[in-house]
Amino acid sequence: MQALHGYYLEDLEVGMQASYAKTITDADVILFAGISGDDNPVHINAEYAKTTMFEQRIVHGMFSAALISAVLGTRLPGPGAIYVDQQLKFKAPVHIGDTVVATATVVEINEERRRVKLETICRVGDKVVAEGVATNMVDRRPA
Question: Which 8-state DSSP code applies to residue 14?
Fold first, then answer.
């Protein structure tokens, strides 16, 4: 792995894993609402959120997806890889103050198509809050 390029296809092996952790702040949620345009009051209005099944504000589900993107784009496979697909299920809410750990694990490598499938899981403590499978297109090592 180089500083400005992540792993090349030839460097990857099934079972390789990387993670990224982030403690979610109120400012993160407000900024994400502004950037994404998703200003659903369950995310930004404490009084409204009290009336929901969650009884408090929750973090956007796609914030967890963005943390997966951070793993894939900066750690494994890293810079140079192209994120081409993601299947994702949201399993539990994330709250302001929670630390989300996003982990990606290589589960399949298709050398012919230069595609790498990775299991993606976001956890808060031992609780899975989102899980799925991502596909990345990865460069071959230059000749």
Answer: T
